[in-house]
């Protein structure tokens, strides 16, 4: 072979045999398969990103609804705080109610006793005692009404 011919063969790959050319083509196909695998991996990555996006979007919408409900919850909490403040006066209210009930029982017993009394002097003293108990009971009723919870009326 001449020197020029060798240069042309090297330049145009004419020195390779058919076996070498077949191996070269299969290696090119393998390189194409690698691109195919990369395409699948990228497709799966896009799907995963979309799923993650919709999951985060759902969580954010639920969080937005919760944040919208916060003012309503604040008003409910303030209402509960006022009710708790009203319950702080409960011991005094219960004490006054207890005293009022005892006074009502004493008044009832006094009226029964005065019915069985024989003299007018005894009846007059019993009547004065009933009037004093009535006055005391009247003094206890405003104390009960002022300390009682407005939602619950005092029991008579």
Approximately how much helix is present in the residues? over 70%
> Secondary-structure element sequence?
HHHH
| Anisotropy-based shape | rod-shaped
Largest sheet: none
Query: Roughly how many Å apart are the termini?
Result: 132 Å
Q: Which class best fits the helix and strand makeup?
A: mainly alpha
Fraction of residues in β-strands: under 5%
The tally of beta strands, per DSSP, is 0
Pick out the low-confidence regions: 148-156
Mean pLDDT: 78
* Tally of separate helices: 4
Question: Measured on Cα atoms, how large is the radius of gyration?
Answer: 50 Å
The domain tally reads 2
Q: What do these coordinates show?
A:
The chain is an all-alpha fold and 156 residues long. It has two domains: 18-73; 89-149. The protein is built from four helices and no strands. Helix 3 packs antiparallel against helix 4. Residues 148-156 have low confidence and may be disordered.
